[in-house]
Amino acid sequence: MEEKQEEAVVVINMRKYICIGVISGLSIGFCSAQSTSQSTYKKKVLETIEVDFLMSYYTQKGEHAAVTGGVGNEKLTDITPTLIVAIPINVDDVLTIDAGISAYTSASSSNLDPFDASGASSNEDEEEEEEEEEDDDRRAYAATTTGSPWVESSGASRKDVWTSINGNYSHSSENRNKIWTANIGFATEYDYTSLGFGAGFTRLFNEKNTEIGIKAQVYIDAWKPKYPTELDSYLESGQNLNNGFFADIDILDQQGRVIDKNGSSVWSPLQTTLINDKSRNSYAVYLNFSQILNKNAQFSVFMDLVQQKGWLGNPMQRVYFSDIDNYYVGNASSISKYASPDNRDVFQLADDIERLPNTRFKIPIGARFNYYINEHLALKTYYRYYFDDWGMRSHTTSLEVPIKFAAGKFTLYPNYRFYKQNAIDYFAIMIYLSIIAINMV
Amino acid sequence: MIKRTAICVMILATLSSCVAIKEYEKMNINDPDMKLSSFSIKRFETNFQVYREGASGANGGKTGGGCGCN
Question: Is ipTM over 0.85?
């Protein structure tokens, strides 16, 4: 933020997504006349107000949507405009306000209710509107009820807006060797709210060649949970398949036969309780150390210690168990190709929502090493090792080589990133091969 | 892994010797592309990675909190 700069950055990653961002840095000059009575000039930490406007466009494709149990359309589009304003309060202090919104459409979250707007789920607003005539409409719709994890639903959950605002205040000591910071922030989206606050301290010494820092951060978050529509409706109807949404809808077994809803083999969720603890809090401590090695090289190492408590699963995500019979709603002939994008009209009813332990302790450790090669080239490296008490281990590494041209007016940032992780202890892949085999017999 | 990282840090710290680089010698170190943190524009990419990947943190991004991810 100390530099007055105006630059445009275009980041294109062809692997999975395209992200285009633009930084527009504006400096609004304020009168900075120095008092003649001062005996020495003291440089401000930030000379003028700085305004950055950032915009991101992101799109992705995928075939492993978690909302539909790891099988299904992951198409997503997101636009995120963000405004960052840094204001010099006095010679030593800076206030930074950071506000942004993220508006997205998502095929996977649309399938919270794969049976579209007339489907089984009824959110809080709909509950208020439940009337007899609505029940009649549902019955008329029920005869043609279909859904698919591969088809984007037109229900309300297909889109959302995440909004956040953060304030950060920093104070630097007279000699700029000590920096104190404090921050507070709030974020909200349709099914989630977050209040965050924290404080940090940075100490520079050895003629500002060495820096150590510590920061503590707390997030007090809460779910406003939305559930897979069939689970929600099942509980609403008193766990009776002859009531509510399921009353006039056929439920199919693995062989595509319509089940007897009063029989002994019927679909029913594994558990009949949903979220009772809606909190999801995070407590983090960040540590960092950096060192200038010589005129052209410097490095840093950093570590986070993060404790999370509360509902750490995502209530939107369906879980299917391989040792529980499968049941479907839709076209029986499509069951054999359920895991294929060719399936456009059958949907498997969930066994449960995602349930995970209510605590998690995470430790990511990272390091950076930067080397200035010449006025045209620099080398930026990054490595991170991550582990937690859910059994996950991961390695992340990246290499970036900024290339300056046109006398430094433009910089190209080619980069390579590698990421690898194992599965947590509570994850298993749903194998659909066996289902296909059964249907072929 | 922690042990290895600690050893690497010690080696790098040793290599740096006791000679401090003076302010007027930091022209290359102070180049914007030499920052030991990500550019602001990287925050979006980091955010998408937090959603898509199991690991997070140690990169200036969130390590939990603020969204229904990770």
Answer: no
